[in-house]
Design brief:
362 residues; alpha/beta; Aspartate Aminotransferase, domain 2; 2 domains; 7-stranded mixed beta sheet; 4-stranded antiparallel beta sheet
């Protein structure tokens, strides 16, 4: 029998939000019956013009392997050059490119916890030792930049992952915090994942920090424009980092539909602003009503927030059986928390109604 690399021995699957279709079959439920609060996507869905544009996509030709037209648009949007951009089959693919390029068995990676689980998995696949910076409930799971800086000095990591705003906590670091971290170690690659930044009320412009040669910024169009089924994201960095990542990028990694949808969506900021208005209204409603139920929402800057409950798995299942799907945070190491992604106000009202019904029966 052929043996795989030893690094893969302890690799486990990561759990994510979204519908588990096999689970629905077991529960005798249909996908169209479910309101999904477990995936942090634009509550308005995709822009209508995306659907119109996809009709014209040629599927009998290979996609542009270099995403030239899309890179041009991204460069214009951010005021950068194509050489500062790499496009991926979702930003998660670029996380794996980055670990493949920069990590070895001798590498250390600092990852706040809880956060997006693919950081740890991608690091371990490439043999790196992961140092978890455990965030405290007593501090509402906020990242303390001073504590993180101490870990940088102590461990001298090859890489640090920072999800900003952090998933699942929703905590958002300011520009000065990131700048301090960048300056603390020029030999540490800081991966700043801004997958959810479009839904922040007053975000700062991280591209101002691209003068630092140890910064990689991840962006996701999947979340911002409701394109989860197409998978599309990109990263920004100095030219040397991008050239390195391109060495491991497979050809035709981004399909033609995803490229076209991204091109059509990228400059549609009205869609984003309208979504932010909807999110703020619905989020305020949810926090108020969940507090009335007697549960504790954790403060969040993002389009999602955590809530402390008695038993996350039990509550998730009880809600799901009634057509409401929330994110059980047990896989984040938080069995007494769920994460709720904000949807339209009418859907949020349905969540509260069902939750109250569940509470009455327990």
């Amino acid at each position: 029998m052929v043996s795989p690399r030893p690094e893969l021995k302890n690799i486990k699957d990561c759990l994510h939000g979204g519908i588990d279709y096999k689970e629905l079959v077991n529960l005798n439920l249909k996908p169209e019956e479910i309101i999904d609060f477990s995936s942090s996507l634009n509550p308005l869905g995709k822009p209508y013009k995306v659907l119109v544009s996809l009709v014209k996509v040629k599927i009998d030709d290979y996609p542009d392997t270099n995403c030239y037209e899309l890179k041009e648009a991204i460069a214009k949007f951010h005021g950068l050059k194509q050489e500062n951009i790499i496009v991926g089959n979702g930003s998660t693919e670029i996380i794996y490119f980055t670990c493949q390029c920069y990590l070895t068995k001798k590498s250390r990676v600092i990852i706040p916890s809880p956060t997006f689980s693919e950081y740890k998995r991608a690091s371990m696949i490439n043999g790196a030792k992961v140092v978890l910076y455990r965030l405290r409930e007593s501090n509402d799971f906020r990242i303390d930049p001073k504590e993180l800086l101490k870990l940088l000095i102590k461990h001298k990591p090859k890489m640090v992952f920072l999800c900003n705003p952090n998933n699942p906590t929703g905590h958002y670091l300011e520009e000065n915090d990131i700048r301090e971290i960048l300056e603390a170690s020029e030999k540490t690659l800081i991966v700043l994942d801004e997958a959810y930044v479009d839904f922040i009320k007053n975000p700062w412009d991280s591209t101002k920090l691209l003068g630092y040669k140890n910064l990689l910024i991840l962006k996701s169009l999947t979340k911002s424009f409701g394109l989860a089924g197409l998978r599309i994201g990109y990263a920004l960095a100095n030219e040397e980092i991008i050239r390195t990542l391109e060495k491991v990028r497979p050809p035709w990694n981004v399909n033609s539909f995803a490229q076209k949808a991204a091109l059509v969506s990228l400059f549609d900021r009205k869609h984003i602003e309208k979504a932010k208005e909807e999110i703020e209204l619905a989020k305020n409603y949810l926090i108020k009503e969940i507090s009335k139920i007697g549960r504790k929402p954790i403060p969040s800057h993002g389009c999602f927030f955590m809530v402390k409950v008695d038993n996350a798995r039990k509550l998730r299942l009880a809600l799901l059986e009634r057509g409401i799907l929330v994110r059980d945070c047990t896989s984040f190491g938080l069995p007494n928390f769920i994460r709720i992604s904000v949807r339209r106000l009418s859907e949020c009202k349905r969540l509260i109604k069902v939750w109250r019904e569940v509470e009455k029966k327990t």
